[in-house]
Amino acid sequence: MTANKLGIAGAALACVSALLLGACSSSGGGNNGTNTGGAIPTANTTEGAGTLPKGEPDVNGDGKVVIGVLSPGDINDHGYYESFVDEADTFAKSKGWTVIKRGSVAPTDALAAARALCQQKVDMVALGASELKDAIPASEEPVCANTAWYVPASGNLPLTPKIMLSSDIASQSVFAGGYAIALLMKEKGVTKAGFIAGPSADYSQRAAAAFKAGIRQVIPNADVVTTFTGDNNDSAKGKEAMQAQISQGVKAVYPYLGGSTDAVATLANSSGVMTLTPGTDRCDSTSPKFDVSVLFSPGDYFAAALQDFAAGKLRMGVARVWKMGVDPYPTVKICNPTGDQADKLKAFIGEIGSGKIDSEKEADKAGS
């Protein structure tokens, strides 16, 4: 994803907890971002979980594949909402599929908009964000009988047999990001890092703990300074926090922010402080420059889901929990690794995937 597609670091990071980190639905202590009040079958448990739509991806059997996307935001915003649609467009083009997209859908219009998509014979209805949850009842109606549904998970969103809920494990990506930056810190002989977030909420506090835990996997005595500015998008507050951390000797920082990410990263660059991205791949960015990309954007998850859809493997009636070291996303990459850094990070991610390392337990330790 290009630098101007910092979707997570845009307007939607105000509820990144709901759509990306599952924090609007849990405090980070569970294994997924849904809250259905009971056990949820997931696509990572058994092959028989949920149901597989007949003929997938040509679910309605008309000889073509059409993806319908509904978004509550501007799909030309050069950010979060556009990134979700772009993933659909890119993948569909590679497969010769068609994408029908509609942006700026009001929650009150979601149900009617979903019915309208189904009337256009789409094979999948994809909701760009859980604000459009009122569209979900259409999945049970005759007009949408032959469709698959992709829905980002958030708190109190019930699982139904006709939809797939998409979420991740809150701590994994930030934990691995901490590990990755610690490899670079160790090479430079530095032991002090910083974490800057907006509101001091459960999700951001949990992320800070996971980041610290990841760093201490490599540098047990590392000092991690955490600052909450109160606003993900206030660049002045973000820069003030960054300057204060620079004054305290911080040599690596995670700007876990929204619209103020680039301002903070630019200031970090000017002082030689290493940086990480909050959600997207910006290793090609030069202004500002990032040293580690932490990848957990909803567009990436959607692209991975479309790959399963194309392969006839996308099941309905499951909460699809994207797991590090098991699925393509979430993941972490060092932009310019040296020596065995890339191999060490790959092995670490694999240990998270196998369960040998539990990011939740490590975050508990760091946060206590």
From TrEMBL:
Protein's UniProt keywords contain Transferase: no
UniProt topology in membrane: Lipid-anchor
Superkingdom as given in the UniProt entry: Bacteria
Domain ABC transporter substrate-binding protein PnrA-like: 64-313
PROSITE patterns xrefs: PROKAR_LIPOPROTEIN
Main location: membrane
Leader sequence segment: 1-28
UniProt KW keywords: Cell membrane, Lipoprotein, Membrane, Signal
Region Disordered, annotated ranges: 35-60
Alphabetized Gene3D superfamilies for the sequence: 3.40.50.2300
Subcellular location: Cell membrane
Designated name of the protein: BMP family ABC transporter substrate-binding protein
Biological classification of the source: Bacteria, Bacillati, Actinomycetota, Actinomycetes, Jatrophihabitantales
